[in-house]
Amino acid sequence: MTKAPDPGTLTADPASGLEGVVAAHTGLSDVDGQNGQLVLRGKRIEGLAGNVWFEDAILHLWHSYVFCDADEIKKALGAARSAAYSSVPLIEASSGKLSIYERIQLGLAALPLDPDHPQAITISGALPVFLAAAFRVSEGEHPIAPDPNLTTAEDLLRMMGDEEPDAEHIAALDRYLVTILDHGLNASTFTARVIGSTEADMKQAVLGAMGALSGPLHGGAPGPVLDMIDAIGAPENAADWISEALKRKERLMGFGHRIYRTRDPRADVLKAGLKTLQARNPKVSLAEKIEEAALTALRKAKPDRALDTNVEFYTAVLLDAIGIDRKLFTPLFAVGRTPGWCAHVMEQQATGKLIRPASLYVGPKPA
Ligand code: ACO
């Protein structure tokens, strides 16, 4: 009889949410919480976002798994958008009770996968089409077909109903998509890797990752950030509003982070993307004043915590300045993160190993 595997002696503190536990080796992204740095396959996020197109950043991340050049990836993602449009009637016919997010998941569940074509391309191309269609259907409008010759950011704005997207809006959306492409072993990425490790197809891994992202502790902060900015309304109200909120023990949305013990580098990358939009969006200057007041108040209230601005704060400001509806913030995060999830699935599947940790039984003993 072969010996059963060792049940395992490494036990993470069950109350820690696996914090500090290394569950994968990855060459995809490095989140350095102490120094406030994010590196994607050897390149700092500041060097990528705003300097390369989303498609180029995807290709950079997929380097070891999908073999094509910059021109081919743009064409392949464009073709994948066109192919995905054949699943849109299902989104259009779906029940009005479904949320935009659920309609995207429906489209994804129905997406045909060709065994001879990289699934990562098919799925990453499909998500923007499903988001735009789900949004328009929820607004009582007909979906708009993709244009495979455009970049993802431009086509996305166009499919959402912006007939001639403004060049600055395209650039800002593209910067956002690159900024959120990948971020270590967060909850949704871990979920994708676990599902991928069972050799389930990539569609199932992305559906599961979307499930994890839907929770308010993971993907849901930018909407509330905008609610806070709207509630403050004017720079002169910021200090009092914030001080009252902290007195009520409320958390300021868009500040603090589990990993970063300094400023989230993505906050600055997105803030830089607002420069061109600031003149025509008074909310940008208001947000900057609110940020200043919040940091002053948080440093006074929590001097030991080094609380600083996180990615969600300027995500909210940037997407709002582009004119994107706040109910699209979490779905849009899924669009930007999908190629990152796919990269992790490919990396995990290359190990050929099923993820199957042990649990420690603490229940009653049999009588
Ligand atoms: N506003 C006010 N106080 C805060 C904030 C905040 N934004 N963040 C942390 N604190 C305080 C907590 O109240 C707590 O105080 P206490 O020790 O007196 O109880 C202390 O700082 C530590 O809080 P933790 O929750 O243990 O800190 P952690 O680092 O685990 O929290 C989290 C990270 C959940 C993101 C937290 O900072 C928070 O709730 N922020 C607001 C919501 C937000 O912006 N979420 C998006 C995060 S970015 C992302 O997920 C992509």
TrEMBL record:
Note the InterPro entries from the entry: Citrate_synth-like_lrg_a-sub (IPR016142), Citrate_synth-like_sm_a-sub (IPR016143), Citrate_synthase (IPR002020), Citrate_synthase_AS (IPR019810), Citrate_synthase_bac-typ (IPR024176), Citrate_synthase_sf (IPR036969)
**Annotated keywords:** Acyltransferase, Transferase
Give the superkingdom in one word: Bacteria
Tell me what reaction this enzyme catalyses. oxaloacetate + acetyl-CoA + H2O = citrate + CoA + H(+)
Where does the record place the catalytic residues?
H257, E312
Q: Please give the PROSITE patterns that the UniProt record associates with this protein.
A: CITRATE_SYNTHASE
A single Gene Ontology MF term assigned here is: citrate synthase activity
> Single Gene Ontology BP term?
carbohydrate metabolic process
| CDD domains recorded | BsCS-I_like
* UniProt pathway annotation: Carbohydrate metabolism; tricarboxylic acid cycle; isocitrate from oxaloacetate: step 1/2
- Which residue windows are coiled coil? none
Gene Ontology CC: one annotated term? cytosol
Q: Which family does it belong to?
A: Belongs to the citrate synthase family.
Q: Which NCBIfam families match?
A: PRK12350.1
Q: What name is this protein filed under?
A: Citrate synthase
Q: Which organism is it from?
A: Roseibium alexandrii (strain DSM 17067 / NCIMB 14079 / DFL-11) (Labrenzia alexandrii)
